[in-house]
Amino acid sequence: MKLGIVGSGQIVHDFLSASNQMQDVELVAISTLARSKSVAEGLAQKYQINKVYTDNEAMFAASNIDTVYIGVPNSLHFSIAKEALAAGKNVVCEKPLVETSEQVKELKKIADEHHVLLFEAMTVLYLENYFHLKEDLKKIGKVHVIALNLTQISSHYADFLAGVHIPKFDRKMGGGALMDMNIYNINFCVSLFGQPKQISYLPTIQRGTDTSGILNLTYDDKQASLIAAKDAVGPTCSYIEGEKGLIYFDGPLNVLPDYHVQIGKEEPKHYNFNKYDHRMISEFNYFARKIKEHDQQAADEAAEHSLNAISVLEKAQEFLPHD
Question: What's the topology of domain 2-121+280-295?
Answer without folding.
Answer: Rossmann fold (3.40.50)
